[in-house]
Write a structure and sequence with these properties.
This protein is α/β, with parallel strands linked by helices and about 475 residues long. It has helices at about 1-20, 25-30, 50-65, 80-90, 110-120, 190-210, 215-220, 230-235, 245-250, 280-290, 290-310, 315-335, 340-355, 365-375, 390-415, 425, and strands at about 35-45, 70-75, 95-100, 105-110, 120-125, 130, 225-230, 240, 255-260, 260-265, 270-275, 430-435, 445, 450-455, 465-470, 475-480. The chain has a six-stranded parallel beta sheet with strand order 8-5-3-2-1-11, with helices on both faces.
Length: about 475
């Protein structure tokens, strides 16, 4: 109970520390944003952490009276559900949102294209590009010509192979194929064509809402078209090019955009910039929704609970395992998970547990390790960059599980070679001390912590060491030990 109390006190202290790190008066912080531009940073693949960061920041901008929100974007794509949530947050924001593809060399590929099109003002830095939003089949592969598309029956989310945007949209490896397939793969199947049509309709609807080039938007989906910053402005995909935030705000001043169905004239010249970096909540979400981290949390949780089951009362493995398991499951439900892979991992763990309780000389254990490795490989149902499990982590878990199973098999084989040390076999040839003189009629010996009646063909005085020769019920037949010093 004292250990449990100490753990609860520790957890309470951590919660209090986390609460103290959050500003208590958010109203004063928001009031500082009045008459300012909020600058947000989006780097890397679009995922649950990005959605949380952007949606909460847009709410803060609306409550704090910011004049405009600038999203500096550099992404290869991301998960479709996260992209849709971000697009919805931008379109429903009462504060104008300018998406700026920056810095130089950045990209707004696939999912980034949808976010750029959803913005009230689209801007790009020099030497940046946008486009390549062709959907591909599930899992990053293309089915054979005329074949049925893979189904996502296992659950998880639709996704793009290299990037996503739209209902399972994205581009392939570079997005060079007009149909989103590998060269020479043939015409898209019915399922792929359905995804292409859905993505094209979504991006075209965003283009029509914002007054941008709808024809090129459809080409970006159907032909994986891409544009440089200058070409994007020339073809009405973006409104302007800007080399810095100040340049963007100065050029945006006086422009009229439609926000929440109303025309709004931007007054952004000489605005102060309120740079909002991701807070601890978004950073924590970004860490645990990393597929490798989520996978390791899941495995640590499972093994922690197993160790607690093998040694009840130790508390530490169970506490760490329980927390890790819950965090891992929370992260996995936010990610595109292949439930067949998750079930294989669970099956592998169950088989390894069975090996411990019903030794099969490694058959169950090795089978469990194989099932766990295969499940780990196919666990993430997406090829989006940044949303795959590191193969090194899978290999480490495979080696660890194999070592555990090897240890169990070695202990099982070793136990077969040891003499039995319990029951009747333990008494046979055991040694004891004579308490009362032993003869053919009577006698008592102390053996294995117990008093036994004993008989002997030859009298044996008290205090001598004897060895058991035979047992008849509760009476032992003994003889003097010829080597008592052993």
């Amino acid at each position: 109970m004292r250990r449990i109390g100490a753990i609860l006190v520790l957890l309470g202290g951590l919660l209090l520390a986390a609460g103290a790190a959050v500003p208590a008066d958010t109203g004063s912080a928001r009031s500082e944003g009045n008459g300012q531009a909020m600058l947000l940073e989006v780097q890397g693949a679009i995922g649950p952490a990005t959605t949380d960061y952007l949606t909460r920041s847009l709410e803060d901008a609306a409550a704090g009276g910011h004049r405009i929100v600038v999203v500096r974007l550099n992404t290869p794509g991301g998960l479709v559900v996260a992209t849709r949530d971000i697009v919805q947050a931008i379109r429903s924001s009462p504060v104008p949102v300018a998406v700026w593809v920056a810095p130089e060399g950045a990209q707004a590929a696939s999912a980034g294209t949808y976010i750029l099109y959803a913005s009230h003002l689209a801007a790009m830095a020099p030497a940046t590009n946008v486009g390549a939003a062709t959907p591909i089949s599930m899992g990053g592969g293309s089915p054979a010509p005329g074949g049925d598309p893979p189904e996502n029956e296992g659950g998880g989310q639709d996704q793009s192979g290299a990037e996503s945007g739209g209902e399972g949209t994205g581009d392939g490896e570079g997005g060079n194929s007009p149909t989103g397939q590998d060269d020479g793969a043939g015409a898209p199947s019915a399922g792929e064509q359905k995804a292409i049509n859905d993505a094209a309709a979504w991006l075209r609807s965003l283009a029509q809402e914002t007054g941008r080039n709808a024809d090129w938007a459809e080409r970006a989906v159907r032909e994986a078209a891409s544009l440089t910053a200058r070409e994007a402005v020339e073809q009405n995909v973006a409104e302007l090019t800007a080399s810095s935030v100040r340049d963007l705000l100065n050029q945006a001043d006086g422009r009229t955009v439609r926000v929440a169905g109303e025309s709004v004239t931007l007054a952004t010249r000489d605005l102060g910039v309120d740079h909002r970096a991701p807070d601890w909540r978004s950073e924590l979400l970004a860490v645990i929704t990393n597929p490798t981290v989520a996978y390791l949390l899941l495995m640590v949780g499972i093994y922690g609970l197993l160790l607690e089951g093998y040694s009840p009362g130790s508390l530490v493995p169970g506490t760490i395992g329980g927390i890790s398991l819950l965090l891992g499951l929370y992260a996995l439900q936010l990610l595109p998970v292949n439930y067949a892979g998750l079930l294989l991992i669970v099956l592998g763990i169950l088989l390894m547990i069975s090996e411990a309780f019903a030794p099969s000389f490694g058959i169950l254990g090795i089978g469990g390790a194989v099932a766990m490795v295969v499940g780990s490989i196919i666990l993430m149902d997406t090829d989006v960059p940044g949303f795959s499990i590191d193969t090194g982590a899978i290999a480490a878990m495979a080696v660890f599980s194999t070592a555990v199973m090897g240890g169990l098999v070695w202990l099982a084989v070793r136990s077969l070679r040891l003499p039995v040390v319990s029951g009747s076999q333990e008494i046979a040839h055991a040694r004891g001390e004579v308490l009362e003189p032993v003869d053919p009629e009577r006698g008592t010996v102390f053996l294995l912590g117990e008093r036994w009646q004993a008989r002997s063909h030859h009298p044996i005085p008290a205090g001598r060491t004897v060895r058991v020769v035979e047992r008849n019920g509760l009476v032992l037949k003994v003889e003097a030990d010829p080597h008592p010093e052993e």
